[in-house]
Amino acid sequence: MDGMANQQKTIRSSIKRLLAPSSIAIVGGTWADALFEQSTVLGYEGSLYRVNPSRARSDRKNFFASLEELPEIPDAVFLGVNREATIDLLSTMRKMGAGGGVCLASGFDELCTDEGYEFTEKLKSVAGDIPFLGPNCYGMVNFFDRVVLMPDQIPRNVPSSGVCVISQSGTVAQNIMYSDRSLPLGYVLCVGNQTSLSIHELVNAILEDDRVTAIGIYLEGFSSLSEFSLCAENAYKKGIPIVVVKSGRSDVAKRTTFSHTGAIGTHERYVDALLDRLGVIRCDNLPEFTETLKLLHLFGPTLGRRVAVCGYSGGEMAIASDLAQRYDIMLPTLSSTTEQRLRSILGDRVNLSNPLDIQTFIWRDQEKSRACFSELMLADCDCTILFLDHPDLVGLDSTLYENATTAFFAASSQANRKAIYATSYSESNTISMRDKAIELGVAPLQGMVETFKAINNVAKMREAWSNFLPPNPSIVSIEHDATIFTEVDSKKILANCGLSIPIHRIVPLQQSVAAAEDIGFPVALKIISNDIVHKSDHGGVILNLNSPREVKEAAESIQPLGDTVLVEKMIVDAVAELIIGVDVDPQFGPVILLGAGGIFAELIKDTKVLLPPLAENQVAEALKQLKIFPLIKGFRGQPAGDKDAVIAAVVIVANLAEHHKDFLLELDINPLLVRPVGKGAVVADAFVRASEDMLMATAT
Prior knowledge:
This protein has 700 residues and is α/β, with parallel strands linked by helices. The chain has 24 helices and 29 strands. The chain folds into five domains: 1-136, NAD(P)-binding Rossmann-like Domain (Rossmann fold), CATH 3.40.50.720; 159-298, Rossmann fold; 301-466, Succinyl-CoA synthetase domains (Rossmann fold, 3-Layer(aba) Sandwich), CATH 3.40.50.261; 503-569, Dna Ligase, domain 1 (2-Layer Sandwich), CATH 3.30.1490; 576-699, ATP-grasp fold, B domain (D-amino Acid Aminotransferase, Chain A, domain 1).
């Protein structure tokens, strides 16, 4: 254990040397020239060496013929050479004890060819424990310490604190750097193929830097779900939010990402469930990603959903109201005290509401504007938003707009409340006002849609962190032959675990009437056959049989399908039908599906994906989000369903799947009949595909 701990400590030390080097060696020609120039412009203060055997020695530029000639062992090496030379140089770096490197060259795993895989194995073999970014990697920038290991133009902003962006795409990383959105960037790290350093290893390293306020990741695939989950848990413990843009929702995107870095795609609904549980925000696009990171940089995951909104346009406030509703943002009614104080400032001609259309009566009065904003900020809300676009066009004067915005900033400072200065158009927010806002602790957000999405994202993260229970994704290797259990045996497995099943008899077809009379009407008649999985599709299920004659006729109609039947007591007081399913995924392990069941399960697709382990409150929250939930609450005078029994059933199934994931492949309960409060929930039909040992395993 001590040896392993020491090895991990050494690796972390090497990663730190790479990310914050005291000395850098730049190897190559044109690419290296660009990097050297940007290092000089940003003001790197460490030792900077040029390595190129074909160039003459120059004291000014410190050219050397090889790494071995350097006067010191470099902490970081940029390898701007082809793949063959990259392999040779990594071997040299390993022998001399260099800190780490950036491998620009392509032609490895991302080719998805035998040749590419062969070169990747060579690369790993010669590198040993030397950490490196790439290959197929555009490099990194550490703005905090003015470190440039990226051969392109670099912004000159050097913040004292900021966010870290980690990207599987160099161009995406550049787009974020070049965006006109005033996002304080501390690190930008491209990972390429992740042959050495993975995203989760970089996250864990970055978490050691107290200057980092949030981490944003552009993700194409997971190298290890369990390791990503652990690093997200570490981020939660340190209070550092993680925001993700993950491609792969469409089939085209999956093919594109695979050809880009060789990333293996995953079931996107399962990814969403994993990130939700970890409190990691998934954004759909880069503008939403950037604005969410900006909000987290300033406020952390502290914002709730109660928001006060104001502006100088009724139309704009109407749009804001619609968007707030779309993104689950609450606009509380102003209290009578707040209304009274606002009335004294705004007069009788302004309709006092939230959102508040201030109109223009106090447009030129900065003191009244500040007083108005101050009163609104004292309302019972998590933050206050001012929407005001500036005319940032040639020949236009924005002085009055800046005065109004400055009054908003002053009110925020005086009230000591969280405030957001936002614009309807992303481009209508000037850099000077954004910088001033950040300096004063006000979040300058760009785009009305992005603003409400960002608030929703931060609130969602806050909610997840307040009840943090990380999932346990695990790689499952299915090596056994799967058996499809009959409905009878499937229900027996579930009953062994504590679920309720109907009173029933398994009898030869000719005894079905006697069995029905013994159980009591109404009954259902179901064929038992290992060859028929979906019995309803073959006419093998006949429901609501209320007399011996009906049972006899049903038995005659079902006879061609087999000679053994299940006679089962009908549940006649169900208020809703649900489906509970399990899919044991090779990457995620057991995945639970909860949703509207019965014959409409596949048609309506009203479902939620959950990952074990599950707490009761997590199941309850998922249940509330289903469209069918009003039926369970009691819809239009109908009795309420036994919600607690449903929750207990889902937890039982999740525990069953987690404990027996080495046996189980699939499980479906459809429907689970939800009876009125106090009467429980009953498994009306079930399907299990697992190893033959599953029945015996649950019996013990």
